[in-house]
Amino acid sequence: MNATLKPLDRTRSPEPLRYREARVEDLADVALIEIENFYTPWSTADFKWAIGNEDVWFWTVLDANDRVVANCLLDVASPDAQILTVSVKKSHQHLGIARRLIELMIEALEKSDPGYYENLFLEVRKSNEHAIALYEKLGFKNVGVRKRYYDSPEGKEDAWVMQRVLARKQA
Questions:
Q1: DSSP per position, the chain
Q2: Can you give the pTM of this predicted structure?
Q3: Is the separation of the CB atoms in 61 and 97 below 8 Å?
Q4: Is 19 noted as a catalytic residue in this protein?
Q5: Is 135 in the active site?
Q6: From the candidates 19, 117, 135, 150, which is the catalytic residue?
Q7: Which one of 34, 110, 123, 157 is the catalytic residue?
């Protein structure tokens, strides 16, 4: 992966957005977004572990003021890559940012080490209808259930395991 800022095109954001590999200085913003969006958020230490880990792609999206407004982590340690988390600041949700980040991850997997990556997996709360609809539009299929996978205020919640078969493209 390349740490250079690149334009994040094809979103409905009224301001220009850019993405790049995450840096240590991004972690405070990333942690705040995580807390804003998840009942059991990842810790700053969890995110710090991902920076520089060759088996994890960790991208952040920056606004015009260089503040992090979204992030995505992908485990690429095997031919079956896995989205670990996608999170968008509430003020920037429903602008197509998560969709575009995932599309870029898919494109990068399909071009990187052609033929190596076969599938992309993720888990999603069974109750998260917006996310499920997005993943289905991106070609993911429900292939299983992880019982009582997520903590919630009401107790435990099942997760859907979703899979997208990756295309075999040449770099």
A1: ---S-EE--S---SS--EEEE--GGGHHHHHHHHHHH-SSPPPHHHHHHHTT-TTEEEEEEE-TTS-EEEEEEEE-SSSEEEEEEEEE-GGGTTSSHHHHHHHHHHHHHHHSSTTS--EEEEEEETT-HHHHHHHHHTT-EEEEEEEEEEEETTEEEEEEEEEEEPP----
A2: 0.90
A3: yes
A4: no
A5: yes
A6: 135
A7: 123
Residues 19-29 have pLDDT tens digits of 999 999 999 99
User: Is residue 120 exposed (0-12), middle (13-18) or buried (19+ Cβ within 10 Å)?
Assistant: buried
Euclidean distance between CA atoms 116 and 149, whole angstroms? 29
pLDDT tens digit sequence for 34-64: 999 999 999 999 999 999 899 999 999 999 9
Query: For residues 126 and 143, what is the distance between their CA atoms, to the nearest angstrom?
Result: 13
Answer yes or no: is pLDDT of 110 > 60: yes
